[in-house]
């Protein structure tokens, strides 16, 4: 039988442990998997685009376990009462190909995206960073804020969103947890004095959410929302001044901020920094950019963490997904309790 | 909520309707979808190979619905007590990206593979075909036999397998349903007088299950088992004498019998025959070959049929897979019933 963590149990699991502890736990698993990056089967995600959104499959394997995530991205969903992003995922045993674990991943993706951003910022932001600007107060925003507190101790967030209700929602969720929240009246206002700038908007268009003039030396930019062909957030000139770190270059060149740059635009693979093969930030003046699009290995790590953390608890139930006749060559036996030929 | 047909309910559904009726029903849906082939998003399946087997994702979309199947293929599984192939699949709403339906597909794949083979044989086998030779008595064999009776009225099957127990299992399952079964002592013996030859073996190697000398004019070959790089069943000379029909050429050239032929080896796309754009069999002497590998649209059709057939019945249950906060921008609200910062 395949183990299952459904939405109800995912909420209970997060409730039980708290968002920050889980982001920290997932971060550890992602670091572990990024450090053994070369052991993984890697392909760009498999996307089915329509004018209204995208549905994607994101598979990977370390040759012991296989995992994939189903995820959609529909920017117009919230206005119609739906989530922009929903997701679920599966782990399977490479040895016999059986699915072993299925889980909701709408919430888990929010946790793993924050964990990945925080992991990157640990090696790319200045050690004395204290203030984060957040552009975009959507579903991902609270998770980002808590991820940066868990991993870097960030206690002050300056947030801007074109939707004032979304900003209020962010404050309502985050202030009670002891993070100082400033509601900015513009992007310019939000980035004032920020050491880290996180852009996380959902519009599926080539926007300039963050203007070139707003990026000062020493800042770390955590670019989360530019993650789809035709969907970017940064003034392309920012990329010329920054050292750009990416997950899987063949995917990021299609989906990330660097889609606006030539094929040979220089990037650093983040896994090499995690594995100790490359330096992260090299000076207090350097501008660093994590051009995050989300990669299958992060989902694999998050699923592994969830599975391990919920093993043997009532956060897991079962889903009857694998037909198992007594004689493996006699699948037909499962159909023949009552046989009614035409 | 996402609707679910799990293994138990799949068995009940097949029990209730009978294998032949369901194969006929799925066949109708596949014909419908093959006739509108050009409306679909099509890519070769996304495969993760290891020395021991393969795990694949097979997505497609008609721009209204999206579907994918997870499926493995592990030839050494039966000897270890596991199914060679297990599968499950999902349908989703392209408009908002939400998964709407999930189902076990180990049994459903067996039904749809038989339905596809039977659909092809309806336009490719001689109208007076009466006898089928089956090479391979594994999980798929009974479904093939019943599919050919449902669609073509085939009542006589000559079977051969290197495993005598598998042949006995086939006879035990099929004879009570009124099909005449002859257990052959060799491939040569099995194909004697056969109008249709179905090859369906699981070994992951370039084998010659069917020798050139055994193929006589007028025969239709239903080549099911050659479906993976490095896994073929037919003497390549057979392909030179036959008219070769395929599902999706970019996938079949990687996985099918034609992988042993040059890139420009001439094939006919089966959908064109179903859509009435091309002839199927053109004479009683022609040798026709359906080089079947299994394509995503067939799974999409089978999932649609299953969903429609089980709608509003207790063959469907629900799986709690989509997180839905009251405010779609407030995913975080689902985590904050009890908040425990670190």
UniProtKB/TrEMBL annotation, chains A, B:
<protein>
    <submittedName>
        <fullName>L-lysine cyclodeaminase</fullName>
        <ecNumber>4.3.1.28</ecNumber>
    </submittedName>
</protein>
<keyword id="KW-0456">Lyase</keyword>
<dbReference type="GO" id="GO:0016829">
    <property type="term" value="F:lyase activity"/>
</dbReference>
<dbReference type="Pfam" id="PF02423">
    <property type="entry name" value="OCD_Mu_crystall"/>
</dbReference>
<dbReference type="InterPro" id="IPR023401">
    <property type="entry name" value="ODC_N"/>
</dbReference>
<dbReference type="InterPro" id="IPR003462">
    <property type="entry name" value="ODC_Mu_crystall"/>
</dbReference>
<dbReference type="InterPro" id="IPR036291">
    <property type="entry name" value="NAD(P)-bd_dom_sf"/>
</dbReference>
């Amino acid at each position: 039988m395949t183990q299952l963590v459904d939405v109800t149990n995912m909420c209970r699991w997060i409730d039980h442990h708290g968002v920050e502890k889980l982001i920290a736990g997932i971060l550890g698993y992602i670091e572990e998997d990024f450090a053994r990056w070369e052991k993984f089967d890697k392909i760009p995600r498999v996307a089915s685009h329509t004018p209204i959104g995208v549905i994607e499959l994101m598979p990977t394997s370390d040759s012991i376990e296989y995992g994939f995530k189903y995820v959609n991205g529909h920017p117009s969903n919230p206005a119609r009462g739906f989530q922009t992003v929903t997701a679920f995922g599966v782990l399977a045993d490479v040895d016999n190909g059986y699915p072993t674990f299925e889980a909701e991943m709408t919430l888990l993706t929010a946790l793993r995206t924050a964990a990945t951003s925080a992991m990157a910022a640990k090696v790319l932001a200045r050690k004395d960073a204290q203030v984060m600007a957040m552009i975009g107060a959507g579903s991902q925003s609270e998770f980002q804020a808590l991820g940066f507190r868990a991993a870097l101790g960030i206690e002050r967030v300056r947030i801007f969103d074109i939707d004032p209700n979304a900003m209020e929602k962010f404050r309502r969720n985050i202030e009670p947890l002891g993070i100082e929240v400033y509601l900015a009246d513009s992007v310019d206002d939000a980035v004032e004095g920020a050491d880290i700038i996180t852009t996380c908007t959902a519009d599926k268009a080539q926007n300039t959410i963050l203007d070139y003039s707003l990026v000062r030396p020493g800042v770390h930019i955590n670019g989360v929302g530019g993650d789809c062909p035709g969907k970017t957030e940064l003034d392309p000139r920012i990329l010329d001044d920054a050292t750009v770190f990416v997950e899987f270059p063949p995917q990021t060149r299609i989906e990330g901020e660097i889609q606006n740059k030539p094929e040979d635009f220089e990037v650093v693979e983040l896994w090499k920094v995690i594995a100790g093969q490359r330096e992260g930030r090299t000076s207090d003046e350097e501008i660093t950019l994590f051009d995050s699009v989300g990669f299958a290995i992060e989902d694999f790590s998050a699923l592994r963490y969830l599975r391990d953390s919920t093993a043997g608890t009532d956060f897991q139930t079962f889903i009857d997904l694998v037909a198992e006749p007594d004689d493996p060559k006699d699948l037909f036996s499962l159909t023949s309790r009552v046989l009614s030929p035409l």
